[in-house]
Design brief:
This protein has 140 residues and is mostly beta strands. The chain has a domain of 90 residues. It contains 1 helix and 8 strands, in the order βαβββββββ. The protein has an 8-stranded mixed sheet, covered by helices on one side. A hairpin with a 2-residue loop joins β2 and β3.
């Protein structure tokens, strides 16, 4: 008798992920957001913005500048996600002594379709090319 293959995790509505691919998949649902950046339990910065670039690149920074969030999951160890209040979602990205919390904002009724995000190129053997530019699949 053959041993059944191990099953991948199944996370419905809430969970914790450490794999970059899973973190990217969860976060690609985010567009408009509020964020709080805390270090050692102290709030350093708060703001609102739009997620315009999502990446897994060990040589790039996560930056919030001019209302735009450039989010690098390689800046964090793991991600928790869960429903927030009303129609929002809460994402918590944990680093070494840091917490980046994101709460999604409801879309404006007449905002139209979500525009394409910037592409992310692969860096090294551990990362894949992620296309959020209208393509739904990860390239192998």
């Amino acid at each position: 008798m053959t041993k059944p293959r191990p099953l991948a995790p199944c996370l419905i509505d809430r969970g914790t992920v450490t794999d970059f691919r899973d973190m990217l998949r969860a976060l690609e649902t985010v567009e408009s957001l509020e964020y709080t950046w805390s270090v050692d339990g102290q709030v350093v910065s708060e703001g609102r913005g739009t997620l315009v670039k999502l990446m897994a690149d060990p040589e790039s920074s996560t930056m919030a500048v001019n209302g735009c969030l450039f989010l690098n999951v390689a800046s964090f160890r793991y991600l928790d996600f869960e429903p927030g209040d009303a129609d929002s979602w809460r994402f918590r990205l944990y680093g070494d002594g840091s917490l980046f919390e994101i709460v999604t904002l409801a879309e404006e009724p007449d905002s139209g379709e979500r525009g394409p995000r910037l592409l992310v190129e692969a860096v090294g053997d551990d990362f894949e090319i992620i296309s959020l530019d209208g393509e739904d699949e990860l390239e192998e």
